[in-house]
Structures are given as structure tokens and as C-alpha cells.
């Protein structure tokens, strides 16, 4: 399983030198690069901020918050409170007696809208579309998917399956968060470090989510661990895919949420346990972890067809589509003279080994005729 981020707080804020990637609070090293290189380097830095797992730079984050308040024409907050996760933030806010009205609209949404309108006017509709596609649009999908998963995880942790007033209150607080590091896609599209975008960028570079009220600001630490696959999906088979300092964590296998207890069971899987799993999605995870080829061998599967291309295997599963695979032997020997066996998962409707191999090349069985197998 490949991961694109690591834990132990080693993913820095700006991807610069040093164990956490810092050059000091408020660094602007990306301003030193010019032209297309500057644009590419800037996007790389915003991407790094979105997935940073280094401890928050609390002084820089607090200064960015206070600056955002001043630029919005508001008095600075009386109190700044730090918590270790978005879950802890929601829990704390629900206990506060008088934080004052929320001011997210003034410090984030309204200046956001003004900056976007300014750029759309300056660049034109087509120009803005191209600008977004080359900046924030390249970060949006994976970052928003992470935001949605965090919101869902907090909601599940705090209210479980409840769909009543308590769930609505938690959901509203989650939507009211300013996303800090996860605002990186929008901030990547706003080139100015001056005014409100600059203040919000300072918090993005320095902290996780935050909740602004007239009297109180609640700021959250960033994650301490983030593991994703090549497609950017949360993915880890031996622990939390996303974890915060206070223990709030999300577990996932190739993007699919799974219970922590389920992952703990994976190393001791047996074919019988896989067959007995009633949840089809979890069974697929089990099969991926265990290995389809190993499952076929250990479950006593019998071949259903053989020809010169390979051997077709099939295992029927209750409540799910069957596992059908073609076993093929590499025609090119390894340095030691052995030939490596490959297992190709093919559609359940496959009836011959040749049809299965042809399908992997996007061809029909009748037209698949390789000149030389490799």
C-alpha cells in the first residue's frame, strides 16, 4: 500500500529545509521564484500546507486571526483557545456560555467573495476559469474530500447515528469552521498576500480549523498523521489514516471508512472469516488485504477453464459478485530461470482464460492474438 504522506509530524508547512519544513514564522520563500517556476512552486507549497502534520505555529496563527479581525473592522477577540482536534473544538464550543455571535461571514466569507469577484472582473470569465484550473482547482477535490471525511468523523464520534437536534447543532458548527490549512485551494487561487487573503493565508500556513466569534476564537491543531494512497484517498491498513494529537482519528482502506477494530483483525484473516463477512464492502477490503491469489489457493478453489493463455479461477460469494481471476505465467524467465505467476482480476461474466486476458487489453476474445507473449 503506497502512502503519499507520513506520520510523526514530519510533513512540514512549506516543504522547506529542516525536519518539519520550516524556515521560521511568516516565511515568504515562494516569493523569490519567478515566472512559471514560481507558479508551480507556489502550488506545491499550498499542497504541502493542505496536508501538513507539523505542530501548529501558534504565534503566527494567532497573529493571522487578529489581523483578519482588524481588516474586517472588528475588535480583536478577547480570548484565543487552542484545542487538539476539530472534535475537541466542537465539544468546547458547545460548552461555552458566551463566546459572542459567530463572525465567519465578516472575516472569511465576505472578503473571500470580494477577492473572487475582483479576479473574475480582472481576468474575465474564461481567464478566471483557466486561473482556477491551474491553481486551486488542482487541489480542490482531494482537499474537499478530506474535509468531508473529517466532518463525518466528528459527527459520528459525537452523536453516532442520531439525526435529531443534537446532530443538526454539531453539523452547523462543523460547517461554520474556517478551514485553516484546508482553505489552501482557494488561497492558492488568490495571489495577494495583502489584505484579508493574506491574513487567512497566515492561518492556513500555521494551523488547522478555527472558529471565530466576537469574543472568543477557537483554534485547532493540525493532524499528527496523514496516510493516503496514490489517488489521494485516506488509506492505511495498520492504524489511523488520519490522526490528531488528542486521539481523534479516521480509519480507512483506499478511501473507504472502516472501524479500527476491523483493521486490527486483518492480519489474522482466514478464508472462512472472509466468507462469513456479511458486509460486501468490508469483504472486498478483506480480499484486497489477504490477496485474491492467496484466497483462491487457501479456499480450495478449482479452475473452471484452461487454455494456452492461462487458467481461469472462480469463487462464488454470498451476497456479492464472484471472484474471477486468470492465472498467467510470464513467458520471460527471471534471472534464476523461474517464471513469475500473475493473477488478473476479470469480470464475473468471463468464461475462458483467453477472454479474461483479452479483457485486460481492452479486446474481445476473438481478436486477441499476441504475436509474442512477454
Walkthrough of the structure:
The chain has 13 helices and twelve strands. The strands form four sheets. Strands 9-10-11-12 form a four-stranded antiparallel beta sheet, with helices on both faces. The chain folds into two domains: 29-225, no CATH class; 271-367, no CATH class. It has helices spanning 35-50, 58-71, 86-95, 104-134, 137-159, 165-175, 184-189, 195-206, 260-265, 271-276, 280-290, 292-298, 353-360, and strands spanning 79-83, 210-212, 216-220, 225-226, 242-243, 249-250, 252-253, 256-257, 303-307, 310-315, 323-329, 341-345. Strand 2 and strand 3 (216-220) form a beta hairpin. Helix content is 43%, strand content 12%. With 374 residues, the chain is an alpha+beta fold.
Low-pLDDT runs of 5+ residues are 1-34
Count of DSSP strands: 12
Look at the structure and give the mean pLDDT: 85
Tally the helices: 13
* C-alpha-based Rg, rounded: 26 Å
Q: What is the H/E string?
A: HHEHHHHHHEEEEEEEHHHHEEEEH
Distance from N terminus to C terminus (CA atoms, Å) equals: 26 Å
Identify the notable features of this structure and list them briefly.
374 residues, alpha+beta, 2 domains, three-stranded mixed beta sheet, 12 strands
Amino acid at each position: 500500500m503506497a502512502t503519499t504522506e507520513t506520520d510523526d509530524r514530519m510533513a512540514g508547512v512549506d516543504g522547506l529545509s529542516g525536519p518539519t519544513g520550516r524556515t521560521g514564522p511568516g516565511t515568504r520563500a515562494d516569493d523569490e521564484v519567478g515566472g512559471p517556476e514560481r507558479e508551480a512552486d507556489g502550488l506545491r507549497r499550498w499542497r504541502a500546507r493542505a496536508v501538513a502534520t507539523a505542530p501548529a505555529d501558534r504565534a503566527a496563527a494567532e497573529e493571522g486571526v487578529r489581523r483578519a479581525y482588524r481588516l474586517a473592522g472588528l475588535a480583536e477577540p478577547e480570548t484565543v483557545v487552542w484545542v487538539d482536534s476539530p472534535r475537541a473544538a466542537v465539544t468546547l464550543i458547545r460548552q461555552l456560555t458566551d463566546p459572542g455571535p459567530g463572525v465567519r461571514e465578516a472575516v472569511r466569507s465576505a472578503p473571500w467573495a470580494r477577492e473572487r469577484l475582483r479576479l473574475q472582473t480582472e481576468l474575465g470569465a474564461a481567464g478566471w476559469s483557466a486561473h482556477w484550473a491551474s491553481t486551486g482547482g488542482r487541489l480542490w477535490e482531494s482537499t474537499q474530500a478530506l474535509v468531508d471525511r473529517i466532518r463525518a468523523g466528528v459527527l459520528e464520534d459525537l452523536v453516532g447515528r442520531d439525526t435529531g437536534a443534537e446532530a443538526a447543532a454539531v453539523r452547523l458548527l462543523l460547517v461554520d469552521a474556517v478551514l485553516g490549512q484546508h482553505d489552501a485551494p482557494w488561497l492558492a487561487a488568490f495571489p495577494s498576500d495583502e489584505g484579508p487573503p493574506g491574513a487567512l493565508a497566515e492561518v492556513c500556513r500555521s494551523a488547522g480549523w478555527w472558529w471565530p466569534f466576537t469574543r472568543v476564537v477557537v483554534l485547532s491543531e493540525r493532524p499528527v498523521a496523514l496516510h493516503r494512497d496514490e489517488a489521494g484517498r485516506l488509506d492505511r491498513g495498520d492504524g489511523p489514516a488520519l490522526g490528531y494529537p488528542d486521539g481523534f482519528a479516521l480509519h480507512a482502506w483506499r478511501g473507504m471508512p472502516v472501524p479500527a477494530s476491523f483493521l486490527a483483525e486483518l492480519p489474522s484473516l482466514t478464508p472462512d472469516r472472509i466468507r462469513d463477512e456479511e458486509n460486501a464492502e468490508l469483504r472486498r477490503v478483506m480480499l484486497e488485504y489477504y490477496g485474491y491469489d492467496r484466497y483462491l489457493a487457501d479456499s480450495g478453489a478449482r479452475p473452471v477453464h484452461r487454455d494456452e493463455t492461462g487458467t481461469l479461477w472462480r469463487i462464488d460469494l454470498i451476497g456479492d459478485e464472484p471472484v474471477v481471476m486468470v492465472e498467467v505465467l510470464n513467458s520471460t524467465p527471471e534471472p534464476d530461470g523461474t517464471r513469475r505467476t500473475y493473477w488478473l482480476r476479470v469480470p464475473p461474466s468471463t468464461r475462458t482464460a483467453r477472454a479474461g486476458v483479452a479483457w485486460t487489453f481492452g479486446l474481445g476474445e476473438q481478436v486477441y492474438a499476441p504475436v509474442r507473449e512477454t
